[in-house]
Amino acid sequence: MRKTLKAAWGNCFFYGGLFHVNRFFNNVFKRKRLTILAYHRVGDDHPDQNGASLPFLIVSKAIFEEQLKFLKKWYKIIGFEDLYQNQDKDRMPMNALIITFDDGYEDNYFNAYPILKKYDLKAVFFIAANKMENQNNVPYWWDRAYYYLNRINIDVETEGTPSNGNEVISLFKMYRDNRSALFEKLNGLNTEEIEKCLDDMGEKYGVDQIEIVIKNRTLRWEQIRTMGTEMEIGSHSCNHCNLVRIEKAKKIYEVKESSRMIEEKCGKRVLAFSYPGGKRDEETEEMVEDAGYKFAVTTRPGVNDLKNPLVLKRINIWEETSLTEKGKFSKGYFSFKMMGF
Fold it and tell me: Among the four residues 26, 106, 180, 255, which has the most C-beta atoms within 10 Å?
């Protein structure tokens, strides 16, 4: 029923003209607005069949291509380099849109990159520098947690509580059957505490960490340099940790060292920063500005007027963003999503 209502409203929004009225209003009466999309992974199949990572981080190649065809027709796709060269919003193109990818999964290179090139579109890939090439064979914490939930029978009632892991274990217990809420709650904790807890769980249950790495490979620097010839590379910190839960010295390292490393390995200036997990505070924003970034993106939904380029809103996109109840691409609902709702 929910999907049926969603599709009906989407068709009304697009084919009834509301999408075009809204675009006109944004361009003329609100001056020019900037839409930024946040992708993560592009898989071979539907996320339910993929099974590698959180479904709400994945869009299939087929649906991604349909989305790009829609965007190419109705928007002017730009990058942060274009935005920097024309910072006066009166000179920004009408219907400007930036496509971004967070985290730097290897499927960005094998699946997203070729489709973007096919339609002559650019995107910005935000990478966590120390996580590339799965350094130390340690994947992102959410991929490990998702794997644990799906592959092993964690008895959270009697689970031994690791040091500093009390809150993590409690959340596994409380939200085991509500995974969206679980990962949202975990995202607000200290990243090192989460990883320590997962280490202890993995040791107790004999989890093969290599299998998790294989299912969630990150980009190699050679691949990043190749994409960087046509795409933009941005910083997503060094280790993708919750920046508001770490001390100042570590925060400076995460923000500054990541751009230095990317610029050294890719030979291109890094203009934009993506707050890991969308977590930020005033101190973090000041550090991002001091580090020389010109733009920074959050996970807050909506479109932008560029009043504060260091807290830009984005619209999260994944498979279900644009699907009808029959699993087909819907111009209607996708167009509604583009408004930032």
Answer: 255
| DSSP label at residue 218 | B
Residue 246: φ, ψ to 5°: -125, 160
- Closest CA relative to residue 124, chosen from 341, 293, 322: 293
Query: With contact defined as beta carbons under 8 Å apart, do 156 and 177 qualify?
Result: no
Q: Architecture of domain 34-63+79-135+224-323 in CATH? A: Alpha-Beta Barrel (3.20)
Cα-flanking dihedrals φ and ψ of residue 6, to 5°?
A: -60, -45
Report the alpha-carbon distance of residue 34 to residue 147 in Å, rounded: 36
Give the torsion through C-alpha atoms of 305, 306, 308, 310, to 10 deg.
120
Q: Average pLDDT of the chain?
A: 87
Q: In angstroms, rounded to a whole number, what is the distance separating the alpha carbons of residues 288 and 296?
A: 8
At 12-44, the pLDDT tens digits run 878 778 787 877 777 776 667 899 999 999 998
The number of residues making up the chain comes to 341
Predicted TM-score of the model (pTM): 0.92
* Cα–Cα distance for residue pair 295/304, rounded to 1 Å: 12
Give the Cα-Cα-Cα angle 90, 294, 283 (nearest 5 degrees): 125
Residue type at position 82:
D
H or E segment to which residue 10 belongs: helix 2-15
